[in-house]
Amino acid sequence: MAALLIRSIVRHSKRPAATASATYSTSGGRGCTCTSEKLGGKVALITGGASGLGKATASEFIRHGARVVIVDSDEESGTKAAKELGAAAEFMRCDVTVETDIARAVETTVERHGKLDVMYNNAGIVGPMTPASISELDMREFENVMRINVTGVVSGIKHAAKVMIPAGSGCILCTSSVAGVIGGLAPHSYTISKFTIPGIVKSAASELCEHGVRINCISPSSVATPLTLHYLRKVFPTATEEKLRETIKGMGELKGAECEEADVAKAALYLASDDGKYVTGHNLVVDGGMTAFKIAGFPFPSDS
Ligand SMILES: NC(=O)c1ccc[n+]([C@@H]2O[C@H](COP(=O)([O-])OP(=O)(O)OC[C@H]3O[C@@H](n4cnc5c(N)ncnc54)[C@H](O)[C@@H]3O)[C@@H](O)[C@H]2O)c1
């Protein structure tokens, strides 16, 4: 992430601030005027749903008629988020690194609501920003990131599959990242953890397709959530929050747009709803094209 930031700052200092004027920004998506409910009667469970992308997705799912069970290790934020989201939301404390917690969250959801239609394995952490060199990687820190970002996801898939396979339907989503598409954007542990997610999804899809269960992942670009702001603050401790948000906005390549929580929530809605009924094993990259190309910036020979 630090490398991405530095590259981004250098590039943006050389060109007009085109991304600042959003001509087709989704403005957080809260102005959605859609009336058709894409998830009417569905039951969804979202890990890491107390904050950021998980909370935004919970809100989008509820707007489309779903009941959402938010699970998170942060009890205070989770309770607050469920209250904010209204009667269609409820909170359950769950640490995704503890398999019995995940099993209990899935079982309780099915007991209360009779089924589980959508399981979104979204909880994640970045881990330490330093040391930058892999030669100094602290293996305990590495394992901690892998336990949350990878083992937690596999555990979520396992327990969702236990109820979705007998039901013969269901949709599982996982959050990867642009840092899992190209290297060098984030610390090694985070990058490695996020690269594994599309692989896990493909492996699980190969079996789950026989049971009518779909599984996909979403790879967002940087969004100004508490997670990103927290880690940026460590890199730029003296910068104001406004400056940090500007920096995150400046990371994109697509003129007139920036990656917002709502963009990820809408990608999740597409995959979770019948709109994505024939999509499985896929990694939906939501990055304004950032990982699709590299602007060469050749040192062209001069005429003289
Ligand atoms: N924000 C971004 O720029 C961005 C970009 C790409 C991918 N992602 C990924 O999106 C996901 C959500 O990130 P976010 O930006 O919304 O962060 P966030 O910090 O706002 O939310 C993450 C949530 O996960 C919870 N969590 C952490 N460890 C947990 C555990 N062991 N058990 C249960 N819950 C736990 C936290 O309490 C928090 O509520 C993460 O997997 C992250 O890696 C984020």
TrEMBL record:
Keywords carried by this UniProt record: Chloroplast, Oxidoreductase, Plastid
Annotated compartments: Plastid, Chloroplast
GO annotations of cellular component type: chloroplast
InterPro entries: KR_dom, NAD(P)-bd_dom_sf, SDR_fam
SMART domains: PKS_KR (SM00822)
Residue ranges annotated for the Ketoreductase domain, each copy included: 42-200
Identification of the protein by name: Zerumbone synthase
